[in-house]
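Ticket #174: bound-state structure for zinc ion.
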Amino acid sequence: MSILNILRYPDPRLHKVAKPVTVFDDRLKQLIADMAETMYAAPGVGLAASQIDVHEQLVVIDISETNDQLQVFINPEIIWASEEKKVYDEGCLSVPGIYDGVERPAEVKVKALDAQGQSFELQADGLLAVCIQHEMDHLKGKVFVEYLSPLKRNRIKTKMLKEEREEQRHRNKR
Ligand code: K2U
Ligand code: ZN
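RESOLUTION: The complex was predicted; output attached.
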């Protein structure tokens, strides 16, 4: 298994729209395993294929305390969302160190395919509901900072670009 490179905001590749998965083969199985390993190592509770520059509709999530309950969502679609909204302090592995409130439906019902290509439906609330919606945004090329004000978003973009330049300078010194 491999730990993959996670794209950092404002990398334009994060804004590509993912295509549906159509082939359930060993390549897909390996990709799921590598995404899970990358997520656990970050650490995070979710990861979308868009974040590792693979633009296919694939998400892995594990909100368990013991990191042993991996959930795979392929070609996910939200088929119901509650009227009730909740604000959650979101973060993102593509925007490290930034957390801010995002309002989303408190509960969602999602229809997706599992790693074997079998269709399933799942109703979620709490952190799982937030994470599913956050990851599905990634598949649509949307990063959570786009819900924030232009002022906040520009400050975050400037901070991320500065950090990227500093990391590049350190890499060049090695
Ligand atoms: O997509 C990602 O970058 C993974 C996020 C998923 C996530 C975002 C917001 C709210 C819940 C999950 C990472 O797991 S960010 C780290 C994190 C971990 C636990 C709770 C919130 C954020
Ligand atoms: Zn994210």
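RESOLUTION NOTES: The mean pLDDT is 97.
TICKET STATUS: resolved
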